[in-house]
Structures are given as structure tokens and as C-alpha cells.
Amino acid sequence: MIMNNTVFIAEVSSNHHRDLDRCLRFIDTAGDIGCDGVKFQLFKIDKLFAPEILARSEMHRKRKDWKVPLEYLSHLAKRCHERNMAFSRTEPVNYC
User: Fold this and answer.
1) pTM for this structure?
2) Beta strands 9-13 and 86-89: pairing type?
């Protein structure tokens, strides 16, 4: 079976700088250029890296600042809904 419907999802990743307005602008821009949805990454730093790495590496510890604050999620989902776009976020995964 061949499907001809392509769906474009904008991956915001951790490029939001913990700034809600920036997150909302990402959604608006994605909608303006024709994306069908937006995805944000959720993670827990202590589940992403081993304790030994976090203890030794300030660079890795600073990645906690890359997290999307959970209180943003309802605002992001609402903006996507208003723009008739899909809202998605990854679930935190335990790699350690």
C-alpha cells in the first residue's frame, strides 16, 4: 500500500531556551511555513546521563537548563490547537 500523504513535524528539540514566548513563536513559524505539527523533547537529566558523568562534567549538568518546563505544556498544546496543528512531546526515558 502506497500512502501519498506527507506530514511535516517541526522538531523544536531543546532550542527554546526555557522561554515560553520563544516556544510559541516556534509553533507560529512552523504553522506559517506549513508544518502539520510541532514536537518538543522532555527529558530528565538524571535519567539521561549516568551519575558519574554528571558528577564530573559541568557541561552535562548544564543540560538541565535545556528542559521544557512542564508548566509550558498546556500553553504549547493550546497554541497548536488554535493553529490546527498536532502537538507532540517525547516522554522522558531512563537510559541509566
Assistant:
1) 0.77
2) unpaired
